Structure prediction request, 455 residues.
Amino acid sequence: MQDLVAELLKGNRRAAARLISLVENDDPQKRELLKGVYPHTGNAYLIGITGAPGSGKSSLVDWLLKQMRKDGLTVGVIAVDPTSPFSGGAILGDRIRMQDHALDNDVFIRSMGTRGSLGGLSRATREAIQVLDAFGKDIILIETVGVGQSEVDIVKTADSTVVVLTPAGGDSVQTIKAGIMEIADIFVINKSDLPGADRTETEINMMLDMKKSKAWRPPVVPTVSVNNEGIAELWNSIQEHRSHMEESGRLLEIRRERVKRELTEQVEYLVKNRIWERVKEEIEFDSLVEKIVHREQDPYSTAGDLLAKINFYERETGEGG
Amino acid sequence: MIQISSKKVRILVAKPGLDGHDRGARVVARGLRDAGFEVIYTGLHQTPEQVAETALQEDVDVVGLSILSGAHMTLVPRIKKMLADNGMNDVLMVVGGIIPEEDAEELIKCGNADKVFNPGEPLETITGYIKSKF
Prediction:
């Protein structure tokens, strides 16, 4: 299995694809593999593209790829589409717009289903990013699922976040709502040849100017992705934001935050895993459930008792049970 | 909470060659989605090279080719060979479209396809076949 990591580092595309599958499938060897991958990460710049369904994210990614390749950058793309909560299946169709790049050796595109995670990013997305980072891609573009108002996970993962809007998306109150309108480093108004684009642009600019001085004031870039209009400007804005992040030290800061979250998650994961292994070995979980269902016990003291029984937690005193 | 592998079967649904009709492919893609598969759909007019490279990057378990143009005896073996060159010999090859019986037999006999479905096949037959292989 560690051969896979060695092959990845040599630039083997099949190894990259296999590794992403293993992390996505939560393979038992995942953690060992990621241990081998991690030392080689941290070099790629991560760009998140988010916005409503059908706002044009995939088309923008396609055009951005062309710009980046012109500048000689190698790119990894992770495109996330929703997994059905009913069947567990998914249609991953973001590639349709990107197939011009399918045969470019310096572009690697991977589609992922959300597989039950909320927030617009799939559970395994961050691990897949690590794989593509170690694979040696200069830029990693992460296209989220089509989002609504509050799926803002991307901002925790990306170094620069682009929020894609379309004209006539509601009145000016929409622009001051919390959530997705707060996470953009760059706003794009795609399909800006449609009526209402000017107004949308003005309203977003007004919203942005209401904020007191901030180190970075997000630009608002109108684009028409089908005609390749505004794409060069968008790429410029992304590069300017990157310079700002690097020069102000902000990049280091948000990456430190990210590591903090990763470490916390890993600790919690290991603790949880250990507990459930022991619970499974020593406790008849289902019979406890039955007792609680019949109101013979309550979940609060039962949880405490259960952890005390596997010597993980001191029994709460002063309570019945 | 014990670590459980959550393997999902991934299927590339591709339309290779000069064939502008993808209603069938979309219906099948939708049926596969409803059967719990992860379907990667890449749209019309794909070259064999694009199909093979996409299968590699997406690390799919199944390649489903929809061909209504009559070029199946050229396209299917070519894609099969490219997949094999990429080390993807174990991918299940399923072909759908207007494929005469003798062609279907030959594709299967030569190992270029594992299964051929013709128009009118119920979705359950297709999803059931793929499920039986995993």
User: Anything to note?
Assistant: Strands of chain A lie at 45-51, 75-81, 90-92, 107-113, 139-146, 160-165, 186-189, 220-222. The domain at 40-248 of chain A is CATH 3.40.50.300 (Rossmann fold). The radius of gyration of chain A is 23 Å.
